[in-house]
Amino acid sequence: MLSLKSTHVFYGKIHALKGVSLDVQKGEIVTLIGSNGAGKTSLLRTISGLVRPREGELLYEGSALNRIPAEKIVSLGISHVPEGRRIFANLSVRENLEMGAYLRKDKDGIQSDMERVFTLFPRLKERIRQQAGTLSGGEQQMLAIGRALMARPKLLLLDEPSMGLAPVLVQMIFEIIQEINAQGTTILIVEQNAYMALNIAHRAYVIETGRIVLSGTAEELKASEEVKKAYLGG
Amino acid sequence: MEWLQQLINGISLGAIYALIALGYTMVYGIVKLINFAHGDVFMLGAFVGFYSLTVLHLGLIPSLLLSMAVTSVIGVVIERVAYRRLRNSPRVAALTTAIGVSFFIEYTMIFARSAKPEAYPDLFSGQQFELFGASFRVEALYILIIAVLLMIILQWIVHSTKIGKAMRAVSYDAEAARLMGISVDRTISWTFALGSALAGAAGVIFGLYYTRIDPLMGLIPGLKAFIAAVLGGIGSIPGAMVGGLLLGLVETLVSALGFSLMRDAVAFIILILILLFLPTGLFGKNVREKV
């Protein structure tokens, strides 16, 4: 479904991605684990068009993404839940969800997708009229995921959904991510919380200073000594 | 009933400031640029209205609409030609460019039709109306109705339409808005179109009320409206409305007390005080600067 081949990304002089290759198959949950600054966020930003690769190939369902602007990539079925959630704090919960469906014209479909988001996150329904900036961190994460789902994505990119959340909430968010996947959305999730990510993923990649250093099924990586030592705390 | 008359004068002046201030504040909210050419868009609006009334012999409302249409296109063109390529440059570059655009418009206008002032036609032949024993010019009533109506329409656009919500989303976080599929360029164009249309309308009602218009007329009202926008809290739409109204009232009050020579000075003193003691203005929030 998505495939990157030896992708290089630079921020000025900083070489953030040094020839990353990665594949995501339809229906999978793929996770990319790595420590802070390893290039996880850069990779997602490259896929969603916010940064441009200097070299490499970015194929999505057979067509190249390299030259398509971010605001067009959404309409191809890729939604990105950015790091730090980035909800519109000055808009209401409902308006945030409406922005997620910005490019869609099918009123009925939008309405039923909003219902679907409320089924996944009943808390959002209770807060529908509230300004998004007044939500708690966990609720904001729910809203960020819900907003991305409103575009009815085929591929959902999640950047650190567990960041700054209490363990109970992390558990809940990950269960919902699995449910979204079960309903047919392919997922690429970037995480520092390798334990949680490997628990729900089918396959995984490990990234270190801009390079993929390990890849395999989630089971394989969980069993790998290197991963255990570096990311699973023993 | 002198004070009532002054009150109406103040509100009329304030409504004009508020309409111009809205454009400043909306543009600042979305691109963080003080568009110093905005006062000149107001001037162009006054002239379009003038020619529409005198040459095309259109009525007041068609002239108002024509002026708004022309100025909105001019606003979009200014952004497209002068500001867009500077969006990622240091702010000083954009600010300097805005001042350049302002001079360009003023002196192109002088070049095209000379600097001589024009007198707006007297549409209401000096009609007055009475209220609580005081009499007012009919124009004041028109200014108020037009200004209030436009502000209601603006509120509706910003809060209830898709483009209005996109404007608020982009002004909060342009990159996140792109991830939703919102075209930042198009949204910014809409913001310039709306703000400039309001300035155009302000130009027409200014001409109607104060009669005299000339190519440099945008300078002082433009600065005053900027003060009004800062007073209300730059970036805040209700702030621009309240700030404009307050400034109009204060200036009229100062004149009424016999200090009319101090009128402009008072406006700038307000600006200095606000910047010193309440830099976020009356309605401004403490917004974090994005790094």
UniProtKB/TrEMBL annotation, chain A:
Keywords: Amino-acid transport, ATP-binding, Nucleotide-binding, Transport
GO biological-process terms attached to the record: L-amino acid transport
GO molecular function: ATP binding; ATP hydrolysis activity; branched-chain amino acid transmembrane transporter activity
SMART domains, alphabetized: AAA
Domain of life: Bacteria
Pfam families cross-referenced by the UniProt entry: ABC_tran (PF00005)
Signal peptide range in chain numbering: none
Residue span(s) of domain ABC transporter: 2-234
Family: Belongs to the ABC transporter superfamily.
Protein name from the UniProt record: Branched-chain amino acid transport ATP-binding protein LivF
From TrEMBL, chain B:
Alphabetical list of PANTHER family matching this protein: BRANCHED-CHAIN AMINO ACID TRANSPORT SYSTEM PERMEASE PROTEIN LIVH (PTHR11795), HIGH-AFFINITY BRANCHED-CHAIN AMINO ACID TRANSPORT SYSTEM PERMEASE PROTEIN LIVH (PTHR11795:SF371)
Pfam families documented for this protein: BPD_transp_2 (PF02653)
Gene Ontology molecular function: any one: L-valine transmembrane transporter activity
Claim: Transmembrane helix is one of the keywords in the record: yes
Annotated CDD domains: TM_PBP1_LivH_like
Family named by the database record: Belongs to the binding-protein-dependent transport system permease family. LivHM subfamily.
The protein's name: Branched-chain amino acid transport system permease protein LivH
GO BP, sorted A to Z: D-alanine transmembrane transport; L-alanine transport; L-isoleucine import across plasma membrane
Species in which this protein is naturally found: Candidatus Carbonibacillus altaicus
Transmembrane segments: 6-29, 64-83, 92-112, 140-158, 188-210, 265-284
Entry GO CC: plasma membrane
Localization, UniProt: Cell membrane
